[in-house]
Amino acid sequence: MATSRRPKSDNNGQNCTNHVQIIDRCSSLAAYSYTTSFNRYPSNPEEMKASCDRIQDGLKCLKTNGKCLSSFTRRTLTAFASARSKHSKQLCANLADPKTVNFLKLVDCIDKTNKKALMATVEKELIGSIQSLASNKTMKWDEKFHGACCSAFVFRNKALKYIEPECGKFKDAQESMINSMVGDLLEAACPEPSKMDEICPKLPKLVLAKEWKPASLTGAALDLIIVLSETPKQ
Prior knowledge:
- The chain is mostly helical.
- The protein has one domain.
- 65% of the residues lie in helices and 0% in strands.
- It has 9 helices and no strands.
- 35% of the residues are buried.
- The N terminus is likely disordered.
């Protein structure tokens, strides 16, 4: 995790003590896992209901404690929360809706075809990349920023590729979930895909630690956002 976190004073009456650590926990609640294990995605309506309840609790927590963040960091976190809220509402409004049913079928297919470990590895790679960028003391501001965009871009492409061919018929469900994690941020903050194809190969190769630090994707990204917001552009 990044070490540049500064203590915050109260913001609009909000107690901001340990606010970043609290936001880390909020983000784990807002993940699709219905338990504290990131590998336990819902596979039936009952588990989906539990996941929906956790996501709503996590989003409320993010909204409350996000008031303590700088405006730049808060806007980015809000973009994530908005995307996750929009997608979860689609899945949670009616558990019998075809989109929700297909999401559960996708999870079931990934599980039955033994692709769960692959998907978890891809997410760990993204989290590890972001953690590496946040802790790097020598990279320039734009290298860190573009590095995060490229890592998210690679994650999105790999995650969609790994469901083929067995689970390909549920690609729309997978794409919706991936977009709720990184899609809106890619579209809003990062260069368009054609430019990223040009930028990414020129960036310094990330050397990832052998042991990644367990964190939610949002918690890891939050570290990097704070580093970027506190470091002048070079």
